[in-house]
Amino acid sequence: MKKIAFSGTLDPITNGHLWVIGEARALADEVMVFISENPFKKPMFSASQRKIIVEEALAERGWSNVSVVLVRGDYTARAAKRHGIDYMIRGIRNTSDFDYENLLQQANVDVVEGAKTLFVMPPRDLGSVSSTFVRGLQGPVGWHWSMQKFVPKAAYNAWVLVWLRKEWEELWSYGSLDGAGVAHADNWFTALTNKQCYAAPQRAYHNLDHLVHGLSELAVWASNTDADAESIRALKAAFWFHDAIYNAPKAATSNEEASAQLWLSSGQTVSNREHVANLIRCTEHALPRSEMQPLADVMLGADLAILGQSEAIYNSYRASVRQEYSWVEESVYRCARRHVLQHFIAAAQSGNLFQNPYFKELYEEKALQNLQNELND
User: What angle separates helix 255-266 from helix 229-241, to the nearest 10 degrees?
Assistant: First the structure.
């Protein structure tokens, strides 16, 4: 068989979609992916964005014999026929899928004179994976870790940037800004999320994932407390900037102080800009508690919440930290890491790792267990 096509909205493309495309590659010399643009749907990503995401996902796998085509204003089966394709391929997950797809393929052949359809059944671990399923994961703390299991890296990265963009626009109340204010805020969003900052390739942990996790923690904390809007805004602004700089020369200044200064230079406005700067400074965990400003315990709780996650998430975190310091010789790294672990374990054993009651109840016990397990490895 020379050509097979796969079609869908792909908003976003999932590992289930990629499995079907992989099956098509096993059957044909050439595979085409048709992305439909339906004016009656309101996808998260535009058709052109989806095309880029799919192409990047295919490139990750080295699938050079798969091309991507946008279909506008036509049935994909008919468009496929015009491209010289006789067969479409679709994944069938259950009997409901089969009933729907069978009707659709009959319409494709009998009504629009399009390509016929081949059906394949995905393995059990991909049987429930769909774009709708993936979109439904967003919300609770840790949603981004769950999503990574079901979508390719390109789709995950694009989704995270859309999520962060929404958080950023809500933080700075874009609806109340004039054109110059929006442009200024947009410039800072780009600066914080580009490859010189949180998206830097050498950042294995202090990256966009860490930003998503911390902001999610703060959002859930806020929904479970009586915190006022301005305090929530200050905390979120501080978290956005707190790891913005992560390679400041230690002899000159700390990363935290450099990030605080970057915040002060940003021109973004809250009621107390210096208060936000101090929240950033407090994430230098060596500082005595007495020097921390109001809400610092909440800020530190969100920053350290990774320590109290499940064993699998914690182990991924510790591997990421090691990767971030891959240039450090192993014995030197282990010595420095042991010192950090002992510091946190001592705080947890005395009940002082998480000072905020909300974070203490959620994470202190599990954090102590995770830290001791790493120290004993």
Answer: 120
Report domain extents, the chain.
Answer: 3-130, 137-376
Q: At a CB cut-off of 8 Å and minimum separation 6, what does 18 contact?
A: 57, 61, 152
Residue 324 pLDDT: 93
Q: What is the pTM of this model?
A: 0.90
pLDDT at 307 over 90: yes
Over the stretch 45-57, which tens digit does the pLDDT of each residue have? 999 999 999 999 9
Say which residues have a Cβ less than 8 Å from residue 115's Cβ, sequence separation at least 6. 5, 77, 80, 81, 85, 86, 87, 88, 108, 109
Structure tokens at 225: 């407390």
What is the spatial distance between Cα 194 and Cα 252, in angstroms, rounded to a whole number?
Answer: 25
DSSP alpha helix (H) spans, 153-228: 153-171, 179-193, 208-223
Look up the CATH number of domain 3-130.
3.40.50.620
In the sheet that 116-120 helps form, which strands lie side by side, from edge to edge? 66-72, 30-37, 3-8, 87-91, 116-120
Burial class (CB in 10 A: 0-12, 13-18, 19+), 218: buried
Give the pLDDT mean for 298-304: 96
Helix (H, G, I), strand (E, B) or coil at 8: strand
The pLDDT of residue 202? 93
Q: What is the DSSP string of 138-166?
A: -SSTTHHHHHHTTS-HHHHHHHHHHHHHH
